[in-house]
Structures are given as C-alpha cells and as structure tokens.
Amino acid sequence: MKRNLLAIALATTALSGAAQAAELRMSWWGGDSRHAATQEALKICGAKHGHTIKPEFTGWSGHYEKLTTQIAGGTEADIMQVNWPWLSIYSADGTGLADLHELSDTIDLSNWDADQIEAGSMKGKLNGLPISTTGRLFVFNKTTFEKAGLELPTTWDDLLAAGPVFQEKLGDDYYPFEAAKLDAALIMTLYGTQATGKPLIDPETNKLAWTKDELINAIEFYQKLVDNHVIMSWKDVAAAGNVRLHENPNWSNGKIAGTYQWDSTYFKISDPLADGQELVYTDLLSQDGQKTPGIYRKASMVFSISANSPNKEAAAQVVNCLLNESEGVAALGSTRGVPASMAARTQLLDAGAIKQIQIDAQARVINAEGPAIHPMMEFPDVRSAMQDNLELFAYGEVDAATAADEMIYAIEEALEDIAS
Amino acid sequence: MGGDSKYLGLWYVAPYVLGLLLFTGFPFVASFYLSFTDYDLLSSPEWVGTANYEKLFTRDRTFDKSLRVTLTYVFTTVPLKLVFALFIAVVLNYRLKGINFFRTAYYVPSILGGSIAIAVLWRYIFADTGLMNMIITMLGGEPINWFGDPDNALFTITLLRIWQFGSAMVIFLAALQSVDKSLYEAAAIDGAGPWQTFRNITLPLITPVIFFNLIMQTVQAFQEFNGPYIITEGGPLKSTYLLPLYIYDEAFKSFDMGYASAISWVLFAIIMVLTLIAFWSSKKWVYYAGDKRS
Asked: Is ipTM strictly over 0.90?
C-alpha cells in the first residue's frame, strides 16, 4: 500500500510540471524607489503564480563585483537584473545564462522587436530580456537657469557662455553643469564622438578608433569647461569625498544645474531635489561642424535567468509577470525607465503611470543618432584607463598630449587583455 | 568516549581547526598557486609562471604608487597611534573621579571604528562643507580641501585610524596597572621626577606590550580597507589607494584573480619581513620578566 501511495505521489509530482510552487531568489541594483516597487511586484507576482521570491538588492556600487562572484561560485539568484555590457562577460558563448528562447512558452517574447531580442542575445541564445532602452542625456535644473536669467543651452557654446553668467549673477558656488570621474570621461567621449563621427572604440575591429590628436582635442575640452566656470574642477568635486551626484547637497539645492545622465535614472536624480525645482531634459548639445549628435544609447539592463537555476520555468513565469502581465507591470511602474516590452509600455502610458518628462526623454534617446556603442566601453579596465588619465590631466600632473598617450596605451592594453 | 579520552581535546578544537583549514589555510595555499596563473574566476586558471610577478615589479606603475602610499600610511599611522594610545592610557591610569566612564568613552571609537557608518560619518565631518571646515571658518581660517587635495587625503584617512586607538590603549592600560608599585615608591624616595620615573621604570617594564601592540597595529594597518574605500575610493590621484584596495579592484573589478593573488603575496612578504625585523630588534629593546639583562 505504501509503495502504491509513493508511486501515486511521484506521478502527481511529475504531471504537475516544472513550474510548481518554487522558492526563488531575485537580485537587482537600484535606488529606493526601485527597491520598494520591485519588492511589491515580487509579492504580487509570487502570489499570482504560487511562488515565493526572496529579494536581494543593493545600490549600483559593488553590484557587479557581487554578481560576478556569485556567478563564478554558482550561487547567483534565479532571476537577475544584469547590466547589458556584462552579458559578454558572463555568457560570451551564450551558455553562461539560461536561453530564454527555450522558455518562450512562458515568456511572451512577441512584446520585443527583433533588434531588442538581438541586443539581449549572445551567439544566438537569448540571455537577457531588455527591460528598457537608455541613453545619456543632458538634464538641466530649469529653476536655477531661470534665476540666472538664461535659456537652457542647446550648444556647447551656450553652455560655455552660461558659466560666467552663473558666477556673476548667482555666485562662485553656482555651476551650470557637472562632470567628474565617469561623467567627465563620458563628456569627453561625447565631444570627441561628435567631432570625429566615430565611437572611441570601433565595434567592428575592437580597436581604438580615434587618433591621438582627436583624443587631445577631447581632453582639452574638459579643461575649457573648468576654465569657463561651467563645471567644478575635479579637485573641488573630490573635496566632498566619494559622493554620488544624487547624494550631493549642491545638486539637491540647485547649485549644480546640469548633468549628463542615463534617462532611466530620472527618479534617482529628481527625488533628492529640494521642493520647487524643475528638471528638463534637452537634446544633446551640439558643436560647430559636428559629424554626429553622438548619442550613447544601449539596452539599459536586462532580466536574465540563471543557467544553474533548478526552477527556470517558475523563474520565467515571474519574469513574464514583471515585464508583460498587468499586475507586475503596474507594480514596477517606470522605476527602470520606460519599459521595452510593448505590453508594459502601452499599459503604463494608458494609465498615465509614466511621467511626461520620461516619455520625452525616451523619445530623445530613441530619435537621436550616434554610432553603435561597444560593450567594452563599460569594462572596468577601459573606464579606469580613461578616468585615471583624465584625472591626472585635470590635476595638472600631465599635459593633454601626455594624457592622450597614456590613455591610448592603457586602453589598448585593456582591450588586448579582454580579447585574450 | 571512555577509551578515546586522549583524543577528547581534538574533538573540542576540531570545529575551529576545520574552519581554519577550510577558510584560511586552503585560500592561503590556493592564492599562492593562483599567483602563478591567469584566472578570471569564470574559467579555469591557466599557468603563466612568474609573469604576474614580473609585471608587478617591472611595468606596473599603479603597484609602485600603491606600495608607496601603503608604506607612508603604515609608517605614519602606527607610531602616531601607539604614542597617542600610550599617552591616553597614562592619563587614564591616574585615580580620578569618574575614571571608568572616561576609560569606556575612549574605547568606544574602537568598537565603532571598523564600521561603514563611521567611515561615512568621517566623510561628512571632513567634506568641503563639513563640520571640520565649519569650525575652521568660524575661527577665521580658510577651509581646507581634506579629500580633494592629494597632499591632505591620506592624512585625513590616517586620522580615522589614529582615532580608533582604544584597543591599543586598553592593552597599555592593563600593562601600566601591572607595574609593581614598590618600584615607583623606591624611585620617589630616591627623588625621581615623573618623567624620570616614566622613562626609566614604566617604559622599560611595558616594552613587551609596546612590542605586541606594534606588531598588531602594523599588520592591521597594512590591511586597512574600509576607510579609504568608503571615504575617497582610493583617490584623488590614487593618493589613498592602499594595496588592499588595489587587490580588491584587481580581484573583483578586473577579475584578474591571479594578479590579485600575486599582489597579496607581495603584501604578505612585506608584512612578514617587517615583523621579522621587529622580532630581531626586540632583543635590544624589549625586557621580559626574569630577563637576565641588566
């Protein structure tokens, strides 16, 4: 009798399919608003599909290190929010993460177009579903610009002219823009991309695409911004310690009135602002004779499922709920930017759940032109090569030509290391 | 267990020994092997011989800079901290009213010291608009760029470490209290002043504890991570980029575990050599009870 009961139990288990009630883990990075919304969405999707999902969330700092270590040790969460450039690190041959094509009975992939599916694929295997598309945009504090009696800039020359006006009308501690560390390196990259029409790293050849003179021109532009009181010097920014823009009191009180950020970070940079201040996104600033507007656009992040997960089917149900089903979509809202999933985007637009400013920003990102971005641009060694040498130049330790030489050497070394 | 009683002690220490072997012994040996490999964590280690060490000693300017910063940090922090801890311990050794409160209060920074929260607090105190500059400005001085100026940043990090003098102080205090009081009485009868008493009686008798604190503080200073990571992230211009930060970046940002292991072993060798020098020199200046030297 006992044996019969056991057989029945086993048969029932087998027939119930892989997506029976499962205990899952999901990891992501973000700010407070994203953390709160995602936890709520996980409760709702878990209840709907009969799973329990343990949230594991952090800020941006350190998340890459944590996730990579987990993947190396095989202890990663079942569902992961992954930065798009990391796909080529975790799954160069497409097998490091689950192939979501194999779960397409559960996840409705028809909500993404072919380009988006391609962006999340490695060697033909769909390793990550794009959550949103993002790009670096200029965003200005309109309130402060009005105090200075200025229109928002549309060209670099406008911005350069705004610096002295800020200083004269508002005081030495008011700046129309900010750029240090990564932001400074990306401003330098944008300026050079516009001038040359080429990305810093050629996606076709994996080589540095700029000449030394082109790089010098971009590096010197950074100094021009400092000299014209457009941005604080690197040294003055560092005086606050290791503080991010959204934690900086000069940003929240409007003394820094502009920045160049991912459009998906709208809440992160707008939440800390003091009452009565208005942020406005603009098109990319332009320069005379530019060859491209130079938009830096990419899939902002993707949801991936662990290749080691014993509950892939259940994880797929949760991913589908978060990205395509009305309950999950409503709970997540636009805390990861304007959704890439057509179903989610339509739902949130109809419900008025996406702020007009986010819709406008997203349109600017989608409509702007620029060369394709190489994922290696976001590899830590490449970023260090750019930032460290720009910092040496900013502190006056080296001239622009030496900084360019060192940058070229360090980037080429990093690219060779990555290739090997 | 009757017949096995001679092995009973082994059972008692087994949990610790197992933990030591698994979580310290094995990584220690493995990191030595890995230092001769190219290992990115996601694929198998590949033997590269001494290539990591060659790069470290011949081409890596970041290592040179980081090593210089680390040695400056250690050779500044350790003596200052020991002198400060000893000074406070001597003060707290007097029988004053409410002395236990002060002893506890001075120990508190050491309990909190390793925490991230204190590093964040330090960042706020010394930021350009922080408490320290507010005080300096109120007193009529010019604000100081504590973190942004490469000449000041390491000093600011050093201050955090010195502020955490409590554990060294408590050990000094215990040593001071164990000095035989009759020696002080004899010195007083001979007409010795406070400085002479301290110089000729107290200091020689607590040299074993000074030696112990010197070794412990040196090893800990070489391993400092939280302060510079949270407060300056190693900047500006890598002026606070201590070797543990470099090891972390190579291991967990570049995922070059082989190279990170090589740096770790060089750091280990430096600590080992300095410790051996300290032990060797201790024969000349450390006095133990029952020592036959005069």
From this structure: no
pLDDT interval class at A173 (50, 70, 90): very high
| CA dist., res. B47 & res. A129, Å (int) | 37
Q: Do A68 and B255 touch (CB under 8 A)?
A: yes
Residue pair A140/A350 in contact by the 8 Å Cβ criterion: no
The DSSP output letter for A175 is: B
Helix, strand, or coil (residue A306) = strand
**How many residues does the structure list for chain A?**
420
Q: Identify the CA nearest to A192 among candidates A302, A287, A308.
A: A287
Q: How confident is the model at residue A265 (pLDDT cuts 50, 70, 90)?
A: confident
Per CATH, A21-133+299-362 and A135-297+369-419 having the same topology is answered: yes
Helix or strand holding residue A58 (H, E): strand A52-58
Spatial distance between the Cα atoms of A375 and A378, rounded to a whole number of angstroms:
6
Rounded to 5 degrees, φ, ψ at B145 are: -85, 90
CA A180 to chain centre: 17
Distance CA A34, CA A28 (A): 9
Read off the tokens for A77. Answer: 């969460």
Measured in angstroms, the CA of A157 and the nearest CA of chain B are apart by 29
Q: Cβ–Cβ of B148/A235 closer than 8 Å?
A: yes
* Residue spans per domain, chain A: 21-133+299-362, 135-297+369-419
The whole-angstrom separation of Cα A114 and Cα A126 is 11
Separation in Å, CA A356 to CA A280, A352, A374: 11, 9, 30
Confidence of residue B186 (pLDDT cuts 50, 70, 90): very high
Query: Which residue, among A263, A241, A137, has the nearest Cα to A180 in the 3D structure?
Result: A241
Q: What is the pTM of this model?
A: 0.84
Question: At the topology level of CATH, where does A135-297+369-419 sit?
Answer: D-Maltodextrin-Binding Protein; domain 2 (3.40.190)
Amino acid at A278: E
CA distance B160 to B169: 16
Q: How far is the C-alpha of B103 from the C-alpha of B170, rounded, in Å?
A: 8
| CA pair distance A317, B212, nearest whole angstrom | 59
Burial, A223: exposed, middle or buried (Cβ in 10 Å; 0-12, 13-18, 19+)? Answer: middle
Give the distance from residue B251's alpha carbon to the nearest chain A alpha carbon, in angstroms: 9
**Nearest alpha carbon to residue A341 among A109, A145, A115, A101:** A109
DSSP state of A170: T
- Please tell me the predicted confidence (pLDDT) of residue A14: 41
pLDDT tier at A376, thresholds 50, 70, 90: confident
Mean pLDDT of all residues in A147-175:
97
pLDDT of B114 = 64
Q: Reduced to 3 states, what is the DSSP secondary structure of residue B139?
A: coil
E strand residue ranges, A89-157: 121-122, 125-126, 129-141
Collect all residues with Cβ–Cβ distance below 8 Å to A118 and sequence separation of at least 6: none
Superfamily of domain A21-133+299-362: Periplasmic binding protein-like II (3.40.190.10)
B253 interaction partners in chain A (CB closer than 8 Å): 64-65, 380
For B63-118, the pLDDT digits (tens) are 999 999 999 999 999 999 999 999 999 988 887 788 888 888 888 877 776 678 88
Question: What's the Cα-to-Cα distance from A32 to each of A28, A67, B95, rounded to whole Å?
Answer: 12, 19, 52
Name B258's Cβ contacts closer than 8 Å, sequence gap at least 6.
Answer: B34, B35, B36, B37, B38, B39, B45, B48, B52
Q: Is B235 on the interface with A (CB under 8 A)?
A: yes
- CATH 1.10.3720.10 corresponds to the domain B52-285: yes
Report CB contact under 8 Å: A238, B232.
yes
Contact B42 A237 (CB under 8 A): no
